UniProtKB/TrEMBL annotation:
Residues 2-238 form the ABC transporter domain. It comes from Petrotoga olearia DSM 13574. It comes from the Bacteria. Belongs to the ABC transporter superfamily. This is ABC transporter.
Length: 253
């Protein structure tokens, strides 16, 4: 379990960017983090994988305080798909994906031929194997996103953190990715993902955390918290929820 206990963080001295954030992420569940632009979702996720250090509060991964773990140790528990990423050097796509196993390699060791085969199957899953030998920095936004997701799957950790992984993906790939995240959670992984589309959260996720102005305004099972009233408060717009052929659809009035 990852346990977030009352954390606050600030980028500067003027007020807290996130305040009193508490929740748990269990293996076997898929959580959606919903909230308006700038509400603090990425900041929460960056605290969760050790990139940012909370000003107050504690984060435990299993029974380890995150403060006591190195980046390499954290990477054995958690893989992350960031919102944006540019490789500083020009790596091939297949190398970027194979690098997913780096936390398991001893110093100076490189991924093996078997690892590269595995990396290739990850590309095949998203039907982007034709990109294997391309320079990562020359890919489209959506292609880059798929490559980073493939790398995270290659890392094969118990927990996955995704920051708006669907933002650059086409209609089909958004669905494919959400189905894969659901499958991963059903197979025992703990997944938390920031999302901008409440419909994807409603359809695929188990639990929802709503964040506004750096605070959790409500969280719980999707059947309890995904309603037009909460979404209206979250996004400051009139929201309706209706069933179309047995599927609930959320839309702005
Ligand atoms: N490196 C930084 N330095 C200073 N302020 C920052 C930094 N990164 C983010 N912020 C500010 O912190 C607040 C929360 O940003 P964050 O990226 O966590 O929001 P978000 O909910 O992920 O937004 P979005 O949905 O637009 O990606 C915003 O007001 C943002 O301007």
């Amino acid at each position: 379990m990852i346990s977030v206990n009352n954390i606050s963080f600030s980028y500067d001295t003027v007020g807290d960017t996130i305040k009193n954030i508490s929740f748990t992420l269990n293996k076997g569940e898929l959580i959606a983090l919903l909230g308006p632009n700038g509400s603090g979702k990425s900041t929460i996720l960056k605290c969760l994988n050790g990139i940012l250090k909370p000003k107050t509060g504690e984060i435990y991964i299993e029974n380890y305080n995150i403060k006591d773990l190195s980046y390499k140790e954290i990477a054995k528990f958690i893989s992350i798909v960031p919102q944006e990423h540019s490789a500083v050097f020009s790596y091939l796509v297949i190398d970027i994906v194979a690098m997913g196993i780096t936390p398991y390699l001893s110093f100076g060791r490189m991924p093996t031929t078997k690892d590269y085969k595995e990396a290739y199957t990850k590309l095949e899953f998203f039907n982007i194997q034709h990109l294997a030998e391309k320079n990562y920095n020359q890919l489209s936004g959506g292609e880059k996103q798929l490559v980073l997701i493939a790398r995270a799957l290659m890392q094969n950790t118990d927990y996955l953190i995704m920051d708006e992984p669907t933002s650059h993906l086409d209609f089909k790939n958004q669905h494919l990715l959400m189905e894969e995240l659901k499958k991963l959670s059903e197979n025992g992984k703990g997944v938390i993902t920031a999302l901008h589309d409440p419909n994807l959260a409603l359809r695929f996720c188990d639990r929802i955390i709503m964040v506004k102005n750096g605070e959790i305004i409500c969280s719980g099972d999707k059947t309890e918290v995904m309603n037009s009233q909460n979404l209206q408060i979250l996004y400051d717009v009139p929201v309706s929820m209706n069933k179309v052929e047995d599927v609930s659809i959320i839309y702005i009035n």
